[in-house]
């Protein structure tokens, strides 16, 4: 199996920046794609971004394009989510997830296509 651990969450003022990290361990060779989701109280889980370990450009949700940047460090089995221009609406628990298959396009948006999940890290943006 694959273990995922998120870190980097915290409290930040509106307009500020925060960087989240997701460290993967275990049978990481079984995972092809790393994705980021978030869930606010009373809301559905929302897809943010995804990237392939093997290469290529990240895939972003329209809601975060231009503000969030996803990158990878294959040597450290770690993906980073740089979040800029944060808004109070960004307040949520942020999760990273690993998919076994090489999904593409809209399939990346479906949380059911991700097998392994981290415990989440809280991000709070104050106004």
Describe how the helices and strands are arranged:
Elements: E1 2-7, E2 10-13, E3 18-26, E4 33-39, E5 46-52, E6 59-60, E7 68-73, E8 78-83, E9 92-99, E10 116-117, E11 121-126
Parallel strand pairs: 2-11
Antiparallel strand pairs: 1-3, 3-8, 4-5, 4-9, 5-6, 7-8, 9-10, 9-11
Name some characteristics of this structure.
11 strands; 127 residues; mainly beta
Describe this structure in words.
It is a single chain. The protein is mostly beta strands and 127 residues long. It contains no helices and eleven strands. Strands 2, 4, 5, 6, 9, 10 and 11 form a seven-stranded mixed beta sheet that branches. It has a four-stranded antiparallel beta sheet with strand order 1-3-8-7, with no helix packed on it. Strand 7 and strand 8 form a beta hairpin.
């Amino acid at each position: 199996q694959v273990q995922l651990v998120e870190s980097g969450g915290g409290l930040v003022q509106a307009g500020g920046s925060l960087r989240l990290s997701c460290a993967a361990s275990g049978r990481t060779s079984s995972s092809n794609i790393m994705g980021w989701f978030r869930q606010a109280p009373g809301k559905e889980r929302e897809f943010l971004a995804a990237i392939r370990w093997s290469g290529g450009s990240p895939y972003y949700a329209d809601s975060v394009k231009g503000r969030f940047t996803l990158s990878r460090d294959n040597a450290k089995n770690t993906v980073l989510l740089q979040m800029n221009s944060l808004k109070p609406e960004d307040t949520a628990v942020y999760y990273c997830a690993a998919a076994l298959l090489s999904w593409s396009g809209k399939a990346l948006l479906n949380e059911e296509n991700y097998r392994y999940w981290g415990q989440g890290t809280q991000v709070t943006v104050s106004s």
